Amino acid sequence: MSAVVFEGDYEFPLMVVRRDALEHNIATMAAFARDHGMELAPHAKTHLSKEIAQLQLAAGAWGLTVADTRQARAVRAFGARRIVVANQVVSPAGLDWAAAELAADPDFEFLSFADSVQGVDILAEHAGERPFRVLVEMGHAGGRAGCRTLEEFLRVAAHAAKTPGVEVAGVAGYEGGLPDAHHVRKYLDTLTEALGHLRVRNPILSVGGSQWFDVIGRELAAVQARILLRSGAYVTHDEGYYRERTPFNRIGGELRSALEVWAYVLSVPEPGLAIVGMGKRDAPYDEGLPVPRREGVTVLRMQDQHTLLRADGLAPGDLLSFGISHPCTAFDKWRMLPVVDEDYRVVGTISTDFH
């Protein structure tokens, strides 16, 4: 019989993965993409885990998205046959690795973004036997990378089309930073317009993020392209940032929080104040603080190794559970996480490859 995580040799604080929620979320997003005629290339930067990546691929993911070529090397080792680097790649070592992988495996697909003539030229300098396929990135004012005007987009696309060693595969964008559905729809119109100017066989239109995939599914349904969705945080969801922003607040269905951090109360130094042995090295804090699962407990602030709580009735040695906010900065704090069933019996492990 599997050991219960609280009765074994595990040290605390400890982050655990709820198997039922993880499997539910993977199946839910796979079905959403399939039902809306889209392909899913989940952003593996969320977890960078072989076990989770293989579950996503087995559920029908088209490929995996990463943030850089170091992550690309990792997911390639996980078994990914298609990789999207959702950035302009400028690292000579990374590009040389990608060129070698393309030359060694004719079935390997590698896509990256480009938003400048200079970026295209860097790719060309390192191209090998097979060209680097690029998605020309169209951004928006105040956003991250990406061409800011259609004229700039067309200039980059034309340069890529005539540059040996580079091949235009389609358009990329990121809508996650936009404030509301109206702005997302306008931005998707811009991406669609940009796509219409390309002369590419079987083009790809790639969008990302976990806040607006419902709008994407509606607005891009009739676009003549492979719609590639790069959502990542959905895989474990959370009880803070994405709980408030998930499209399933607007449409049928749900995602479930799959990550919990358990930690001991270490000290109750004054009335109403408790110190827990969980800090910034153990749980994310960039998009909201951990969420206590005990009534009447409030997180005041986090330090490197401690979290300060406002609470009554706690004593040293009490073990508390916390949900997390923002899974994309949770997994990198752990090298190994136990997977538990509904009774907290350990049924597997999740390893991560962050360095």
From TrEMBL:
DNA-binding recorded as keyword: no
Alphabetized Pfam families for the sequence: Ala_racemase_N, D-ser_dehydrat
Superkingdom of source: Bacteria
Gene3D superfamilies, per the entry: Alanine racemase (3.20.20.10), D-serine dehydratase-like domain (2.40.37.20)
PANTHER family xrefs: D-SERINE DEAMINASE (PTHR28004:SF8), ZGC:162816-RELATED (PTHR28004)
Residue span, D-serine dehydratase-like domain: 258-341
Protein name according to UniProt: D-serine deaminase, pyridoxal phosphate-dependent
GO molecular function: lyase activity
Similarity annotation: Belongs to the DSD1 family.
Keywords per UniProt: Lyase
